[in-house]
Design goal:
Blueprint lengths: L4 H61 L4 H26 L1 H6 L7 E4 H18 L3 E7 L5 E4 L1 H17 L6 E12 L2 E10 L22 H4 L12 E2 L6
Parallel strand pairs: 2-4
Antiparallel strand pairs: 1-3, 4-5, 5-6
Helix pairs in contact: 1-2, 1-4, 4-5
Length: about 240
């Protein structure tokens, strides 16, 4: 006769420990993923927040230097308000912990005006362009529809990120163009293309495959001499579809 009671208990305990180890590994992987999502989210948002904040500080300095010109001060206050609204939207996102933990953005569906978006973008970016003596132009082609349903904050973020990189990697007195073209319209849907080009330092053909890799930047002597981080693009093109 062999007493197998102890062996059975040991097997049961071993099975239970193995199950607990699997659960702990899953919990650890989930915690690490949430931590990475938070880091990625906050890293990208810090870049987004810096752009409108620079505009607010720049307009404040201009207003302080023209206190005897009410028209100039009023214009600066208007631009500070526009930049502040965009900054407030970004901060509200940062304070939404559910988005930080998941690392995901939820697209809103709200009425937005294309002219107002462009005015806001010019207001936020113009101080940076002026500081480097760059020339910025917006050109409209066949634009018929101006009111849309979409996420205005996200659309501004896309444009501001591309334009801030264009400004960063374009030399003084360089030129940056933003072309807006309505491609087609059918019933309640309109398709637009937004093309941003600049006379910046460019990037090698080998790096193009990595252009959408998060937090990546081409490393060469030209980029190393340029302050900041981002994508070094001379000719940057983005096609964005907006649905009405």
């Amino acid at each position: 006769y062999i007493d197998i009671t102890n062996e059975t208990e040991l097997r049961q305990m071993q099975t239970k420990l193995q199950a607990q180890a699997v659960e702990l590994q899953a919990a650890l992987a989930e915690a690490e993923a949430a931590n990475r999502a938070k880091s990625d989210f906050l890293s990208s948002m810090s870049h987004d927040i810096r752009t409108p904040l620079n505009a607010v500080l720049g307009m404040t300095d201009i207003a302080a230097a023209h206190l005897d010109d009410p028209v100039k001060v009023k214009d600066c206050l208007k631009k500070i308000g526009l930049s502040g609204q965009h900054l407030l939207g970004l901060i509200n996102d940062v304070l939404d912990m559910s988005k930080i933990e998941s690392g995901k953005m939820i697209l809103r569906e709200e009425v937005m005006s294309l002219p107002e978006i462009m005015e806001n973008i010019v207001t936020i970016m113009q101080p940076q362009f002026q500081e480097k003596g760059q020339h910025f132009f917006i050109r409209l082609q066949s634009v018929v529809h101006e009111q849309f349903i979409g996420d205005e904050l996200r659309l501004r973020q896309v444009f501001l990120n591309i334009l801030s990189n264009a400004c960063k990697f374009t030399p003084a007195e360089g030129t940056i163009h933003m072309d807006i073209k309505e491609l087609s319209a059918d019933n309640d849907t309109a398709r637009f293309s937004f093309t941003i080009t600049d006379t910046g330092i460019g990037m090698s053909p080998d790096y193009i495959a990595h252009v959408f890799t998060a937090f990546s930047r081409e490393r060469d002597s030209r980029v190393d001499k340029t302050e900041g981080t981002g994508l070094g693009m001379a000719i940057t093109k983005r096609i964005v579809d907006m649905l009405d």
